[in-house]
Amino acid sequence: MRNSTQKLTYLQAIIEAQREEMRRDERVILMGEDIAVYGAQTLFDEFDESRLRNTPISENSFTGVGVGAALTGLRPVVDLTIASFVYLASDQIINQAAKLRFMTGGQLKVPLVVRTNTFYNNSTAAQHADRPYPLFMNVPGLKVVAPATAADAKGLLKSAIRDDDPVIVFEDMNLWAKKGEVPVDDEFLVPIGKADIKRPGSDVTIVSIAGCLIAALAAAETLSQEGIEAEVIDLRTIAPMDRETILGSVARTGRLVIVDNSHKVGSVASEIAAVVVEEAFESLRKPIRRVATPSVQIPYNLNLEKQLYPNKDRVAEAVRSLL
């Protein structure tokens, strides 16, 4: 029923989006490693192996199968499970999926979705804990989304599946169990390329990227008790980036803090800072602050790992330094 909602976890919302799109369009297929393990078990009760395929652990290979399937008219969703595995599939994503429409003068389209999860903050160590979404921000022809709420996870995945260009979806394993209100609507879509102001404010703009939203909102609540009202923007889409929403907020507040779980060097936070300096320098009352992960390898020890990522206290401290 439209205009009604149900409370779902982030992971349930993703599976709901996948199910709705597979019911809606028989061209939508799902393939990947461990898809029967991480949440998608119920899909096997409804769809057969012509629509669902558990693959061997060979990311470059089955991502290439996804590219080929997209070129033949299907709408494949390729699940790489862990974001660090995206390096193995990078040739297919960057050199094939993202370039073929341009190189054929628009004669071919590649409606491919690549799903992957950032598996950090849980002792998966250096080879599994990367948050590599900034790398793909620099790939023309590829759209990059990173939802931080259950509703946005559903709406962005559905939009990605319906898009005629390749989209990579960076989900966040730390959010899997987080519940939120999700529209009960087969046509609920979140537009790609549009950020969302999750909390209005007048004193400072906090731009949150991917899974940083929880820390950003918690910091904003703490700051509010001190008389500081922060506007929190959830970027949602990394590429194409919603510059207008960011620039409009900075024009109102004059201060900017960017929160990003990826490594600080070459981060999405760095790109946002560059855009604001180039296009809205006159609006800034204070220097931009980036709260990000230092450029070090991720340790296995959880106590050490947890100290690396942005948290509520670091975000609040960055805001206070501007006031």
Could you explain the architecture of this structure?
This protein has 323 residues and is α/β, with parallel strands linked by helices. The chain folds into two domains: 179 residues, Thiamin diphosphate (ThDP)-binding fold, Pyr/PP domains (Rossmann fold); 125 residues, Rossmann fold, CATH 3.40.50.920. The chain has eleven helices and 14 strands. The model has no long low-confidence stretch (mean pLDDT 95).
Q: What's the short version?
A:
The chain is of the alpha/beta class and 323 residues long. It contains 11 helices and 14 strands.
Write the layout of secondary structure elements.
Layout: E1 5-9, H1 10-24, E2 28-32, E3 52-54, H2 59-71, E4 75-82, H3 90-97, H4 100-103, E5 113-118, H5 133-137, E6 143-145, H6 150-162, E7 167-172, E8 179-183, E9 196-199, E10 204-208, H7 213-224, E11 230-234, E12 237-239, H8 243-253, E13 256-263, H9 268-280, E14 289-293, H10 302-306, H11 312-320
Parallel strand pairs: 2-3, 2-4, 4-5, 5-7, 6-7, 10-11, 10-13, 13-14
Antiparallel strand pairs: 1-8, 6-12, 9-11
Helix pairs in contact: 1-6, 2-3, 7-11, 8-9
